Amino acid sequence: MKTESKPEKRPEMAKQSPSERRSNFEEVALGYNRYEAVAEAKRCLDCKKPPCIKGCPVGVDIPRFIRQIAEEDFDSAALTLKSTNSLPAICGRVCPQETQCEAVCVLGKSGKGDPIAIGGLERFVADYEMEMGVTAPDLPAPTGKRVAVVGAGPAGLTAAAELAKMGHAVTVFESLHAAGGVLVYGIPEFRLPKSIVAAEVDFIRRLGADMRMNSVIGKIGMVDELLSGYDAVFLGTGAGLPSFLGIDGENLNGVYSANEFLTRVNLMKAYLFPEFDTPVKKRRRTIVVGGGNVAMDSARCALRLGAGEVTIVYRRGEDELPARAEEVLNAKEKGIIFRLLTNPIRILGDENNWVTGMECINMELCEPDESGRCRPVPVPDTEHTIPADVVVIAIGTSPNPLVSMTTPDLETARYGTIVADETGATSKPGVFAGGDIVTGSATVISAMGAGKVAAKAIDEYVRGSARL
Amino acid sequence: MPFTILKKRELVPTIHQVDVAAPRVAEKAMPGQFVILRIDEYGERIPLTIADFDAADGTVTLIFQEIGKTTRQLASLDAGDSIADLAGPLGRASSIERFGTVVCVGGGVGIAPIFPIARGLKAAGNRVISIIGARSADILFWEERLEEASSEFYVTTDDGTKGHHGFVTDIVQKVIESGEPVDRVIAIGPPVMMRAVAGVTKPFGVKTVVSLNPIMVDGTGMCGACRVLVGGATKFACVDGPEFDAHEVDFTLLMSRLAMYLPEEQEALECEAAAEPKI
User: Fold this and answer.
1) Which of A171, B22, B83, B84 is the most buried (most CB within 10 A)?
2) CA B99, CA B187: separation in Å to the nearest integer?
3) φ/ψ (deg, to 5) at A403
4) Over the Cα atoms of chain A, what is R_g?
5) Is A237 on the interface with B (CB under 8 A)?
6) Interface test with chain B among A172, A277, A398, A400, by most B beta carbons within 10 Å
């Protein structure tokens, strides 16, 4: 075996230095260059039964595209990627590879070294392709079937791309003015440049998908109306409704949901105000409540907007933080303060309705509850106040009810998710669903996986209905 | 796909009317609903209540007052120009039922959105008493349209230059006190006016509805910028409203949240002024 001669470590990806990136919104991780990528690809064992493919929710042929990188055949590597994943430049940046493909990499599990940097290599190939000019693949003859996709987020875009590649006529309805869903309103520029999202959306457009922005289904048209013009409908409307804590002071000026804060900053480019018209409060001290990736994104945005002091308040401990380890590390590197085992009691304000701070109480973890997570309980007499000018509530989101409210025969579950089987089929014939609207808040890649699975089921459904 | 402005005119100083080609929105629009528009790539998303709509022509009529940078920029556009984005119809429609006698109150730029509601209510068989008011006669508009949509019609001006010298609330009070049974009052205008109308009708127990226009971003329930307190519960004006029970609305909170970005509004205007070439 030639493994002995291979280096054990993966190359570290170049990043902007913490001091530099603290004050800009440019991408933090700079990507591999071709030498690093080829060297890293050569470390791959090219396993006969590659577990990494199974670790990928969309089933990318990982060993194949990595082999093609090792052979410096980047064009073929791009084709391999795009044949299963329509959004590789996005996935290469935001997928939690460390819990998916890279977690099961034989190199890493055998203890012989780091797992292959699959995400970094995916990004390298996608960025290479974008630089060289993306070519749309040959499409099959049109099937004459029409499919409506509701929501241009990760699930909807993936479903649209897959369906277009199968020869169906696809129309995507998006409520906002830009396609991408959470990729454009939620994930910050420094983690996922919006030009990358635009380029991948453009690829799907070039596959033939008709993208209609500003189209709020449930308002401008109902699902039943769509069914009269389309052979099937895919709902990928996401989990867009922000949750609040339900404590006093949440309506004070300066208190934002993470959705609002991030939408202002990312989609509306408030970090470039007044060049762009949408403002966001840039103040000295910001508190972010929550411990997930959205909380980390909010905290990092606040810091870049110029807040001198950014504090994350989370009611459980370090081990329970739901955010990716890499994101927590990035946040810490930049000096974000973590107040763990701390729970907000109320938000304090002045006579003009402006936030002045937050009263919190210390928590301790007790025995695990039904969910298996340790339940935090307040420690008596530990109330304290953290001063703040801006508070961002990042404790989660729930499904947007606009579509289910206006589609009476669509079965929903507790918390408003749409009930769908493993193929994405809902209780309503011809209507499929996938992504956060079915699962509740999850990851970009799992939504993409659901979009892909549903596209296959929709393909069978519309072809089957042709035979009837 | 941009949205073309078909007609544009200044109704009275600083208040403008634009008719925008938006056939799909026009087809679905109902009285009381609003749209969110964004003029261009740099623009912010602002909500405007639909003042009129014509499904046959495929147009939506919007009326707005020049206040901040966005409304000033919108005022600078002409017929033939286009705006980048227009999403709607958003929010819940006004309830148009046969209530009996309904008093429709429009103040300032709020005269515009009260019009389709009055028209709808009259068509539904209600006796519609409309009261419109403004600071002064020179900023009143759509008097004839409102009069035509009403069974009884009043004008008030703060300075007495037209109609009743005083506030719309004076007439609301007079109508209720006249003994005519009023089944419903709907008021749209500046928050202080809506609060005053609510104050007048509350002692009489007359059901009163107001249309709130807080700051919004997406307009579909996603961001929560438009949080309002109604009967002690937080509601999103964009999806739960924009109409709410006037006697339950916390107007103080509404007004303080509306003032949240005044310094930034000022900064945007100054920045724009600085960018204009000096003559």
Assistant:
1) B22
2) 16
3) -80, -45
4) 23
5) no
6) A277
A268 to B271: CB separation less than 8 angstroms, yes or no = no
The structure tokens listed for A235 are 């709902």
% of chain B beyond a pLDDT of 70: 99
Half-sphere exposure at residue B108, Cβ-oriented, CA atoms within 13 angstroms: 14
In the sheet that holds B15-21, the strands lie side by side as B82-83, B3-12, B15-21, B59-65, B46-54, B34-38, B85-90
What ipTM was predicted for this assembly? 0.95
Contact status, residue A400 vs residue A437, Cβ threshold 8 Å: yes
How many Å apart are CA B160 and CA A207, to the nearest integer?
A: 64
B182 alpha-carbon distance from chain centroid: 22
**Cα(A50)–Cα(A52) distance, rounded to whole angstroms?**
5
DSSP annotation of B203: G
Cβ–Cβ under 8 Å, residues A302 and A310:
yes
CA atoms within 13 A on the CB side of B5: 21
Nearest residue to A394 (alpha-carbon basis) of A183, A245, A187: A245
Distance from CA of B274 to the nearest CA of A (A): 12
Q: Rounded distance, CA A287 to CA A388, Å? A: 6
Whether B177 has its CB under 8 Å from any CB of chain A: the answer is no
Rounded-to-integer distance, Cα B45 and Cα A268, Å:
8
Nearest one of A17, A24, A402 to A216, comparing CA atoms:
A402
Nearest to B42 among A220, A251, A277 (CB): A277
Q: How far apart are the C-alpha atoms of A415 and A176, rounded to whole Å?
A: 23
Q: Give A465's pLDDT tier (boundaries 50, 70, 90).
A: low
Phi-psi region of A151 (alpha: psi -120 to 50; beta: other; left: phi over 0): left
pLDDT at A1: 41
- Mean pLDDT for A412-422 is 92
SS3 (DSSP) at B21: strand
A163 near A155, Cβ under 8 Å?
A: no
Q: How far is CA A42 from the centre of its chain?
A: 30
Structure tokens, A194: 């919006």
Is A48 buried (19+), middle (13-18) or exposed (0-12) by CB count in 10 A? exposed
Token pair in block for residue A262: 């991030």
Pairing of strands B127-134, A255-257: unpaired
Backbone angles phi, psi at A222, to 5 degrees: -100, 165
Structure-block tokens of residue B27: 């087809």
Closest residue to B217, CB basis, from A264, A275, A281: A264
A275 touches chain B (CB under 8 A): yes
Q: Residues B165, B169, B171, B173: what is their CA dihedral angle, to the nearest 10 degrees?
A: -140
Which residues lie below 8 Å from residue A120, measured CB to CB, with a gap of 6+?
A10, A13, A31, A32, A37, A40, A92
Counted across chains A and B, CB pairs separated by less than 8 A come out at: 111
CA atoms within 13 A on the CB side of A350: 9
What is the pairing mode between strands A146-150 and B233-236? unpaired
Query: Partners of B208 in the beta sheet?
Result: B185
10 Å CB burial of residue B75 (0-12, 13-18, 19+) is middle
Looking up tokens 């007004």 gives B255
- Region B118-135 average pLDDT: 97
Biggest CA–CA distance in chain A, Å, is 74
List the beta bridge partners of residue B185. B103, B208
Distance from CA of A264 to the nearest CA of B (A): 8
